[in-house]
Amino acid sequence: MKELNVKKVSAAGLSVEAVPALLDKEKIAFQPIDTVNWAAYPYCPAVQFRIAYTDDSLLLHYKVSEASVRAVAGHDNGPVWEDSCVEFFSIPAGDGVYYNVECNCAGTLLVAAGGGREGRVHAPQEVLDRVQRWSSLGRASFEERVGECAWEVALVIPFTTFFAHDIRSLEGKNIRANFYKCGDCLQTPHFLSWNPIELPSPNFHCPQFFGSLKFE
User: Fold this and answer.
1) Is the distance from CB of 154 to CB of 60 less than 8 angstroms?
2) Cβ(4)–Cβ(212) under 8 Å?
């Protein structure tokens, strides 16, 4: 199981567009999302993420380079996993309830909570609206563009995004989590993870294979 230390940073009044520069300043290193778990889907685009946190939010920054990009999902809680999509799954309260925060390359989000893949509860729109998003490709949806493309997204995820819990602080906590890159409906579907998944077919809803985040 992979482990990652998550640094606390000061980001009072920070805009989401400034997250990459802040993480540069704080020397937060990128981590690769490069585990190809299923031989039927061998394509491995270049994907990396980095993470930090503040008194009330998580800061996430992804960088991707892939052979095509797609952002068809036009509204939050739609099928963003069919697009060029980066994902963060975590168990913030340690009680077995995990959240999936999925973001396509245009900053459209899906957030849900539950104890398993079935019967998940989507976050209300007012919860999603509090998540700040920045995309290097802009926020408008678009059909698949074929050809090598590099893109980035940054997210400021307030602890209120964990809407089924009352999370006030992550300082000093160890949280099980995994990070993913997928694109179910791209010309070359792929399913990459940070921590390896030992299952016979693609499935990201598997907390038994989450890694560990240690919040400093």
Assistant:
1) yes
2) yes
